[in-house]
## 1
Amino acid sequence: QTVVTQEPSVTVSPGGTVTLTCASTTGAVTSGYYANWFQQKPGQAPRALIYTTTNKHSWTPARFSGSLIGGKAALTLSAVQPEDEAEYYCLLFYGGAHPWVFGGGTKVTVL
Amino acid sequence: QVQLVESGGGVVQPGRSLRLSCEASGFTFSRYGIHWVRQAPGKGLEWVAMISYDGSDKYYADSVKGRFTISRDNSKNTLYLQLSSLRAEDTAVYYCAKTYMDLYYYYFGMDVWGQGTTVTVSS
């Protein structure tokens, strides 16, 4: 059973920087996992932010960036705004019969 | 603009069936794979199923395999999810989401999501 692990919660001050990570029980996350990141606010559908580890969608604010850090996929929020308070989910691609697994999500509080 | 609209949710008894629909507009539906993702109340996202652009490839999560069936009608720009042998743990908001890249490049992930339809399994 593949498990994708994220920090349950983080708190960041307005204007600050925070990095969320996404780890796999199968080992180091590489570019071959094509990591995606999504933002979800209460009562709303998820919104895609990052695809294939580092690439932003046309609507993704510049302050969001994706990378690989220490064998994990990472999402960095810079110059955090109050409206960035949300749940953030990563998605990894494993291929095979059950290709996609979401992480458990990280709740970001801006305080 | 690109849009996905889910429908078909409701309250259903355990063991019964339900069919969800996802109507697409604003893009060439027949060139893109589509996913179903669900979210139980107060819980995280769970990937459920995915169908390739032409319907030739289908993938399922272990939790639904053998009970749920994904299909599509490209002439109607519509995706379906047939839910059978429903259990209480299938209670969730069900979202459809479009693959970011077309044709077989579905490993790139998802971009546009619908607003979801709620399924409640209860006696």
Note: Chain A has a mean pLDDT of 97.
## 2
Amino acid sequence: DAGVTQSPTHLIKTRGQQVTLRCSPKSGHDTVSWYQQALGQGPQFIFQYYEEEERQRGNFPDRFSGHQFPNYSSELNVNALLLGDSALYLCASSLRIRDRGSEQYFGPGTRLTVT
Amino acid sequence: TQLLEQSPQFLSIQEGENLTVYCNSSSVFSSLQWYRQEPGEGPVLLVTVVTGGEVKKLKRLTFQFGDARKDSSLHITAAQPGDTGLYLCAARSGSARQLTFGSGTQLTVLP
């Protein structure tokens, strides 16, 4: 039973560029959430996707956008990269129907460095 | 926006010692989770608590949820070097589906 997978593991981009990160949820899960974790901090919620729609969003600008595909996998896109976007980007999957009490399972993350 | 405060921020102890990590908020949580994260990896779920006053044990780890569901603690007995990591609490309030995380406690257990 595969857990949450993310790609790539590491990425280096230049200010102003655009980046796409990918996530495949745990088998049987239908909901994907994205988090940004700066060094030494806890993860910050970006947004959550269910049934291919963004359902909730944290306090992140419109430069951050996403997509969920029919197979439940998801992408996170960040446009016009800033130095402050450098962070570990985490994907978490869960089962919607049990979401309120259920756990979110995290992938290993993508380490994004913006220079 | 609910704020989760974790303390201490850093903790360095010798193998065999006991320790307690705290997670506090002024908000009431519908559920609270504890995670452990190692460098370069994603958080790994340790436990979920949903009932006020609930106590759960996981080997040498004891988790407690406050009666008012506003705070939680994690107690580790006879810490081992393998317990080293970033311990994060995360909570949901009301109908929120996303998790709000604390800033974490970085634990180092020295052999």
Note: Residues 4 and 25 of chain B are 5 Å apart (CA to CA).
## 3
Amino acid sequence: DAKTTQPTSMDCAEGRAANLPCNHSTISGNEYVYWYRQIHSQGPQYIIHGLKNNETNEMASLIITEDRKSSTLILPHATLRDTAVYYCIVRSRAFGNEKLTFGTGTRLTIIP
Amino acid sequence: GAVVSQHPSRVICKSGTSVKIECRSLDFQATTMFWYRQFPKQSLMLMATSNEGSKATYEQGVEKDKFLINHASLTLSTLTVTSAHPEDSSFYICSANRDSYGYTFGSGTRLTVV
């Protein structure tokens, strides 16, 4: 699986959009981009995933650059409950039983 | 949905004893489950892949005789930490994959060995 690079930490004001970047310059054509988050002392929570088109769901939007070497997770109106560690992961199949490998992630702190 | 239940949520045990952690897929069948370990302020590290009806696959550096994995049914995988020591104290998390829902994680088990 391709390696990802994320900033170690970020702050965002409550109510503002939180934009979390991820670099995955070695991503292959069949690799998907996944985002998970982990709130303190809980298991990771799935947020969103995509291949090359931008995606949106009830939690977030995922913007993938045209060359697919980077992506941005957008939380449109951050709340205090969005404070968590966010992990960007790339892997070769959207579904199936390949393992997920976690990097260090970005610790997002929402400021009141 | 795809729900994975993990039990217990926290356990304290004495050094030298064994502890069993259960991971259940509640509304789907999982032929494969994954076990992770997370130390404070660190990321999740994959320990092993649990396969229903066959032996688990362990990641490099993980002692298979210390971390026993059993996946006897399509909805249950167990991780037993044998002869636990304080350095085994950690947050253990299981995960399973359900097509169309992706990977779902349990809520984790906080193990403290005293």
Note: The two ends of chain B are 38 Å apart (CA to CA).
## 4
Amino acid sequence: DAKTTQPTSMDCAEGRAANLPCNHSTISGNEYVYWYRQIHSQGPQYIIHGLKNNETNEMASLIITEDRKSSTLILPHATLRDTAVYYCIVRVAGGGADGLTFGKGTHLIIQP
Amino acid sequence: DTGVSQDPRHKITKRGQNVTFRCDPISEHNRLYWYRQTLGQGPEFLTYFQNEAQLEKSRLLSDRFSAERPKGSFSTLEIQRTEQGDSAMYLCASSSLRATGELFFGEGSRLTVL
């Protein structure tokens, strides 16, 4: 699986959009971008994933650049409950070596 | 509650003792994963099962660790002769075959080895 680079931490004001960047310059053509988050003392939670098109669900939007070397997770109206560590992961969907590899992620702190 | 459940949530043991953790995945999920997480780090993959078959084991899974999923439903992770370095959160997750990248995690089992 390709490696990813994320900022260690970010702040965002409550009610504003939180934009979390991720660099994955060595991503392969068949690798998807996945985002998870982990709220303190809980297990990680799946948020969204995509291959090359932008994706949106009830939790977030995922914007992937045309060259697929980076992506941004957008939480449109951040709340205090969105304070968590956010992990960006790239992997082959359904691949044989299925262990999702988590890095250290971005610690997002939503400020009141 | 139809999510992934883990038991016990907390375990304190003395060095050298054996411990066993249990994971009950979402019932229709074929895949079950074990991860370990230490303070300040992301979860580290240990092993995963597809039904009852253990398909991959990380090099982190030393000989003292063994995982089973005998009937393709619940799984157990046993650590023999625990060491202080085994202190961590042990996370279980499950996924369907249709969406193998969408893992559903349990709350974890926190192990403290004294």
Note: Strands of chain A lie at 9-13, 18-23, 31-38, 45-50, 55-56, 61-64, 70-75, 84-92, 106-111.
